[in-house]
Amino acid sequence: MFKLRPWMVAVAGAGWTSLTLYLLWLCTNASVFVGEDSFLRLMAGPGYLVAEQLKGLPAEKREARMDILRAHFQYPVELIPYDDVELPPEAMVMLEHQQPALNSDEDISYFPLDDETVIRFGPMWGSAEVKDLLKFPIFWMTACVAGLPVLLLLGLGLRAYRRHNKDLATLNTCLGTLARTPNVMLPALGKEWTPLLLTLQQHARDISAMSERHREVSQAVSHELRTPLARMRFALTLLSKSEDPPTRARLQERLQTDVEELEALVRASLAFARMAGAPTDLQHEPINLRDWLHQEFALLDGHHRQLSLETEPAQLELIGDRALLHLIVRNLLSNAITYARDRVCVSATYQGEQHLVLHVDDDGPGILAENREKIFEPFVRLAMGGDEPSGFGLGLALAKRATQWHHGELSVTRSPLGGARMSLILPLRPL
To answer: CATH no. for residue 221?
Structure first.
């Protein structure tokens, strides 16, 4: 949509003003314009009459008679020597044949009196001066009519300029408000500002949400650190007072366990922090899904669960970042193994022509419908089937974020095995 800008109004106003002044000048001059041929015909009569008045008089009396005749003309009339006439050759030929001649550059006509004298008429007219034009009401009427569009454009331009400045001031105030309250109602501005305001509001909401997540993560990390640190402090106190070797060994083992837990928490927190921004160095490569999943199974040991793999067709293949996919599948398998009773089944197939869907099913207690979105939030741990929650609540949050960076989708539903089903949808080719 075309938008009227202040500079456009200024240019249009200046152009219209120049055009108006030019038209006024043109009308002033064109109103007295007469064609050359018509002009010569017009002056033939006055020239003949003046010549008839002067031909019968001696040279010394002609000037006196000219003074009398000159009073009846509204333009200069003079007698000049033939030799003082400056005309183009074709005009001089007209004088030689006793015909009037015209100097069109100066609006002066010449009429032959005799062989030595010429009657000069003019200059007939010239451009009127401004002070003379101002005396006529018609000039003021023309000026007013011609100047109306100029005034209108200048008024519209001034109005647009003031509205623009007002909108900028309102926008500046709105930016300060959005920084504090992202969900504040947006002010009423011109339509041209609406996309910008909506984008700024969305950015403010994103920043606010990110800040809130960072605050929650910081609080969660602090809470997770507090428990092992308290146990370690208590164990160190007991260790300093105990002389019993078995007791000291038990306390040292507990300290070692707490140190490992702290290290695991730090590693998980750093991994989650690294996933805060979309990676720019993804290494996409062809991956045979069946072979790759068997490799992932081999990395899992000591779980005592029955793992099965079903792919349809047998040779499924996608192009993706192996490290990112490893992070996703490892956390999904670890979660399923943690809560499964006996079985974990992994299945994969094509979904349409552009995507692949991978299901991780377990026969555990499952996840209540109201908690299926919460489990992907960082540091959220839910009790499953009466068991105490384990881990730090970062595994599925990492898997969710890594899935987003891979332009996929991750969700949880009820499994046919009775437990939870993690459904991972991935594009077959990089987007």
So the answer is: 1.10.287
